[in-house]
Amino acid sequence: MSEATPPEVTPRSGGTTLVRAAVAAIEAATGRGPLEISDFRGTPCLRVDAHSVVAACQSLRDASALDFALLVDLTAVDWSGCRPGCEPRFDVIYQLMSLTRNERLFLAVGVPSDDPTVPSVIGLWHAAGFLEREVFDLMGIRFDGHPDLRRLVLPEDWQGHPLRKEYPLRGDDRP
Amino acid sequence: MGLEERIPPGIFLTTVERIVNWAREYSTWPLSMGLACCAIEMMATAAARTDLSRFGMEVFRPSPRQADLMIVAGRVSVKMAPVIRHLYDQMPEPKWVIAMGACASSGGVFDNYAIVQGVDHVVPVDVYVPACPPRPEMLMHGILQLHEQIRQSRLVQR
pTM for the full model? Predict the structure, then answer.
């Protein structure tokens, strides 16, 4: 789906100009465009491969036409039972913001359940440090290159990753 | 008749137990420990309208070594539970615990893996004040119930 065309988006998100610039930046950095371009309530969402996420993020951060200097949030979704074949099971979502252009952008990365690993973007944004630890803690997704990938919000001796769909809501040690 | 008539004016008789309980009742210093939104109501309880200082309780102590009463104001996460137990163990005897709010009393709406289903799994609770959150009047009522307990308590038992 590398030939995906930018969708019509509301003017609030800077229109298709932003998406075109982002697609061009990702294409230049990774050799291919985004796998999928969608729109969520006026904010464009680009999907890229796990192995090209660092290059894509760097191009979005450094391209002067984009300048996504701020990593607002880094989170993950467990799509168990929602996708045909259930793979890739997880999405890691990067929410970027350009302070100089007042634009926002989502970057989505599919993560398979048999090897839930994504390269860390901590080299691009220090803010990714805690965010990646939180995703690791609650979803069990590993971030390659993270210098200190420990649990963040749960106790250190916790077993399992509670935001995964199969985790029992009331915990696994309560009747 | 009897002994009272023989002692000079300004002196009256009581039991050691009663006067010790009286002192404890009116100097129950709470540990300033707010865990969640109930802490706001706890602070309001200490403020002018209900005014805890009427009961010698306005001194919220930041150190468990100086506190007599632990008001568990909010939900207790599994990660926080050992900390609460640690603080409780650091408080000198005699000490009391009020479970303030639905969460501290029973887990409240948070029936999930992260929240201890009632702080009585961690520390012994003397008074429960379940509501979401309790108004200052309700906490005040709980505190008065605790005062009643303290007044009735036996020195040798505790």
Answer: 0.80
